[in-house]
Here is the input.
Amino acid sequence: MKQGAVSPFVALLVVAVMVSYFTIVFVGVWRSATNYAGKLVWAVLAKFVAVIKLMQVVGVVGTLMGLNK
Here is the structure.
């Protein structure tokens, strides 16, 4: 293994923890925004930011799994 390289097990563990955490956060933000009783703009912005973050997480997971080669 090259110096600075991460073992496949560690990479998989990091990805699993990250995906689990962000799934819970994404679902929570989405449901909260759906049930929000205030101004519609805040609910829409919360969902927009959640989708942007989801795209970022997918990109990071792809990078960690070596899918960007």
The two ends are 19 Å apart (CA to CA). The longest helix spans residues 8-35. The chain is about 75% helix and 0% strand. Helices lie at 8-35, 40-64.
